[in-house]
Specification:
It contains 13 helices and nine strands. It is α/β, with parallel strands linked by helices and 362 residues long. It has a six-stranded parallel beta sheet with strand order 3-2-1-4-5-6, sandwiched between helices. Strands 7-9-8 form a three-stranded antiparallel beta sheet.
Amino acid sequence: MLTPTPVAAVPPASPYAAVFIDFENVYYFLKNHYLDPQDPHDYALDLVRALRDSLKREQGLDSLVLNAYADFDKIPTGPQGPLYLMGVSTRNVLGTDHKNAADMQLCIDALEVLYTRPAIGTFVLVAGDRDYIPVLQHLRRQARQVKVVGFRESVSGDLLQMLGQEHFIDARELLPAERLKALEDHRAARLRQGEEVRRLREQGMAGVQTAAARQAAQDAAASGATLAGNAPAPALARPSVPARPSLMEQLLQEPPATFAPVRRIIRDDERRCLEFLLEQMQRFAGQHGAPEIWASPFLRRLTDVLPELPDWERRQLLSQLRDAGAVRLEKREGEPHPFSVILVNYQHPDVRELNPGPVEEK
């Protein structure tokens, strides 16, 4: 008589979790998407605290490992102390020129926990880059439960498709309602300010065009009086030395053919780069007698606006704006070596939407 093979018992679900937080990614999303709210690191800390409590309260998971990754030296007011008090270990990882090193360190630590802490059954990643797909797939092949926490705008669609919506936790649902409302109100106020700036800019442009039309009419009247043999009226007499056109007139007269074919700018980082470029043109253009700014100082200042990007990606943004016909780069002879300058196509539709107003002469 054959003895039936015993069926292996299904091991109980592990009550332990490991949480890996790309704190840098969360911080810069809050800062950029909500248009520079006050103390974005506080909102990031609220999110981490709410996630830890939600995992315990709603899923019965005790977070034995809580790690946060960032180049913390670049984040103001130092969130490492509050994270420590929440039981979060911080990994201060310096960025590189080619890849955010925090991503790589997070993946290494996740694999180390996988192979050294077999009691941990759930891995939670507070991140959304598609670069995490290989490590998430590996964790699932090792029979670990995997969850991803993030804001939908910053989470890769490929990652969500691979993981499944049921394993995604929307970060907005974790934030306290009053904190989320404060963020949304701030973003709405900044957008209204932007609309007001655009309206004032359009009014200013209309004023420039009206003044130009009035001057053209006066010039035509003066020319007509001369052809008729009459002396022009003193008020219409033209100066012996033509006045140099204003910088805004130079920008408007810039021949569009010198720029690449126009395409609309839809990527958020390209648009932020263009917006900052226009602010810098407003501030610095004309210091050297021309409506242009030097490329190298601009790229250095761009570091403060897009610190989450490595240098090569910031340079690439400028190339992408050039390919979209929004700007062009020109070489200038100089001492001790030539330098590059940036010129803006003020006829580009996205430039017309974002341009804060006429460039003033210095």
